[in-house]
Amino acid sequence: MKPLIFVTNDDGISAKGIKSLIEVAVEFGDVLVIAPDKPQSGMGHAITMNHPIRLEKSMLYNNCEAFTCSGTPVDCVKIGIYEIMHRKPDLILSGINHGENASSNVLYSGTMSAAVEGAMENIPSIGFSLKDHDSDADFSEAKEFVGQIIKDTLNSDFPSHVCLNVNIPKKSDVKIKGIKICRQAHAFWADRFDKRLDQFGKPYYWLTGEFLNQDMERDTDLFALENGYISVVPTHFDMTAYKAIEQFKKWEI
Amino acid sequence: MKPLIFVTNDDGISAKGIKSLIEVAVEFGDVLVIAPDKPQSGMGHAITMNHPIRLEKSMLYNNCEAFTCSGTPVDCVKIGIYEIMHRKPDLILSGINHGENASSNVLYSGTMSAAVEGAMENIPSIGFSLKDHDSDADFSEAKEFVGQIIKDTLNSDFPSHVCLNVNIPKKSDVKIKGIKICRQAHAFWADRFDKRLDQFGKPYYWLTGEFLNQDMERDTDLFALENGYISVVPTHFDMTAYKAIEQFKKWEI
Q1: Hey, of A117, A154, A205, A242, which one would you mutate to test binding to chain B, going by the most B CBs within 10 A of its CB?
Q2: What is the pLDDT of residue B253?
Q3: Fewer CB atoms inside 10 A, N or C side of chain A?
Q4: What is the mean pLDDT of residues B10-16?
């Protein structure tokens, strides 16, 4: 029996990135797509609790069944499993995101949060991101490696409650050198707010800023990406800071 | 000089929980509040990228300066640091949430995501949640312990890039037994969608379900809560599954 592969993203169902991912996924199994009906970048692990969720059949792809969802990427995974498939798929793929999601961006990323939700459901799950924000980004080289990683995943004994954060360098004249298994770099945003005045003279703000990496070790996802490799970070959702537990024990009453 | 304490939440600025938290916080320092102008439960680590953010001065509290923000709890932290305070506060407090955020709910929780954002900024940060969803929940007993934990934090050598996930049992006839330092329990939602038809006969869905704990160890936050203790989980944002790295090394190209 062919594997059942669930595909979602955070850029919305009509993005070139999810189209590219579907084109690879259909080579490996039966594909079901549920993707947001609008861009959901930066939605992190948000779920829709205070509004109803809408689901609509989509005719956008003729190689698979597809739906749009009014909710977040995590909503897409939940409604896919519990309302549409009524079973757990064999694999969850999210992306290919237009823009990288390396380092601590895993927390902000809707693409990766869909994969993390898959890990919570104990389904092998992978979030793919290309380091190119262009809506017409070139996914041709990325697709080869996406296929390789899907094949490796389906043929492997995938660890339980883990997903993969895969980031792919932007297509350039230099070929991708290979794949590196990494840890999440310790790097952060230096945020800035662009303050403007509306037509009534009242202020509004756009969140902007730059991403700063002060983690100079060579085992990080950012190091791999900067050196022409695809980064693969095994990712889980246990956020306990185990190393700090002992220090706090003296607070116990 | 008095410490500068930043306060936010995800239930919105007028919730009883944040009012209770502010009442405790002002005993320890100068308080600045920036909280969502509407409920933002379940928003996780979402940030507002595709809409402008609005900030309005609030006159709701006479013991501190306060603003409402149209964005998410994480937006509140970012705009507080980078646009209003122009410095890092000495302490970030989030909550007190109406409802618990133990175990893997840390990922969905706007309350905890604000604290995690504080940890990313390397500011001692604490998310407080009471195991009582009632909008008129009784925070009186919780407030004593919140004060104790704030005092411990200000007097301690707080570890870098860590925050605390504090969950407090619902007020009952039995007094809270004490405080336990715990790890995040390995427990999940069994989701369900409540499907209804709108006035045009078109379906819509409400996300619902129940939380299931199959983690029977005694060192978890859920165990502490169920046994009448306040749970404190030191929490970080490195989601790397270090134990799985070796297994994936054979995928390297």
Answers
A1: A205
A2: 85
A3: N
A4: 97
Taking residues A138-165, what's their average pLDDT?
A: 97
The shortest CB-CB distance from B249 to any of A79, A120, A181 is to: A181
Within 13 A of A198's CA, how many CA atoms are on the CB side? 10
Q: Which residue of B has its CA nearest to A240?
A: B235
For A219-253, the pLDDT digits (tens) are 999 999 999 999 999 999 999 999 999 999 999 98
Q: What pLDDT score does A197 carry?
A: 97
CA distance B245 to chain A (A): 6
Cis peptide before A96 (omega within 30 of 0): yes
Q: Which of residues 119-178 of A touch B (CB under 8 A)?
A: 120-121, 148-149, 152, 159, 161-162, 164, 178
Omega prior to B150 cis, within 30 of 0: no
Helix (H) or strand (E) holding B8: strand B4-8
pLDDT in tens, B189-218: 999 999 999 999 999 999 999 999 989 999
pLDDT (tens digit, 9 = 90+) per residue, A38-68?
999 999 999 999 899 999 999 999 999 999 9
* ipTM for the complex shown: 0.94
Residues A132, A168 contacting (CB under 8 angstroms): no
What pLDDT is stored for residue A141 in this prediction? 96
Helices A16-25 and A140-154 meet at what angle, rounded to 10? 40
Is the per-residue pLDDT at B174 higher than 90?
A: no
Is B158 in contact with B80 (CB distance < 8 Å)? no
Question: pTM, whole model, 2 decimals?
Answer: 0.96
**Alpha-carbon A112 to chain mean position:** 3
Class of domain A4-185+218-251: alpha beta
Q: Is A252 on the interface with B (CB under 8 A)?
A: yes
User: Which of B45, B188, B207 shows the shortest C-beta gap to A107?
Assistant: B45
Contact B111, B92 (CB under 8 A): no
CATH match for B4-185+217-251 among 3.40.50.2300, 3.40.1210.10, 3.40.50.12280, 3.90.1140.10:
3.40.1210.10
Domain-by-domain residue ranges, chain B?
A: 4-185+217-251
Distance CA(B164)–CA(B178), nearest Å, equals 16
Would the CB atoms of A46 and B50 count as touching at under 8 Å?
A: no
Q: Do B188 and A113 touch (CB under 8 A)?
A: no
Cβ <8 Å between B120 and A188: yes
Q: Do A244 and B237 touch (CB under 8 A)?
A: no
